[in-house]
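Reopening this ticket.

The earlier resolution said the output was attached, but the attachment link was broken on my side. Pasting everything inline this time so it's all in one place.
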Amino acid sequence: MDSIDTKKSINALAFFASEPHACSYLDNCTAISLFADPTVTMTMAVYSRLADYGFRRSGSHIYAPNCPHCQSCIPIRLPVDKFRPNRSQRRVLNKNSHLTVKCLPAAFHQEHFELYQRYINNRHAGSSMASPSTDEYINFLSSNWSETYFYEFRENKQLLAVTVADKLTQGLSAVYTFFDPAYEARGLGNFAVLWLVQEARSLQLRWIYLGYWIPSCRKMQYKSVFKPAEIFSNGRWISLTGAYLENN
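Inline output:
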């Protein structure tokens, strides 16, 4: 339950719309984002509450899509207690079960950055994300107010992947995962989500927040495979059922 101070902070928080900009996910589309007032000091308690209304963190900014003629970006989360891996996900778990995982506080590590560069330049070549600077990297993934962790996935001593997550009051919010492109066949992105489910259970947290699901975006299709996912629609969380997928 929200504390009185948290409720007051949320009620007093102002929101501002960004200038129209090119959509990062859909070609030939213009996007508008709604931002929480960046001049107000954010707290994890307030952000945790805003996450339940579909907001996300990018660096120190809290935002949500607010496009007047497009509702393609749909907040999606996974109820930890109800999730059971399917056959494909069990194969991913088995394939990567020997990896060691280490949790680190959010901070710059050169080895992480070099892996991030390889991933971004492979996945997003020619985009605004390509060839990131050290400042762009760490300012995107972390902030001075969030409780953020970098989880390393290693095979022996070799770094294969890093998943970045915020610890909310009620769950873990998956910020970003990057991995060695040479090991794409290992399903490391899916394995990171599966591992976060296990971590949330050990921390007695209820949800994994997976950001935005965009049905028409191929890169986002994997999120709907984690069942029973829930989506935020018309002001409430509902189950992402087969009927919804068929009708949308």
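Reporter confirms the inline version is readable. The helical segments are 4-12, 44-51, 87-95, 110-123, 134-141, 188-202, 242-247. The first strand starts at residue 15 and ends at 17.
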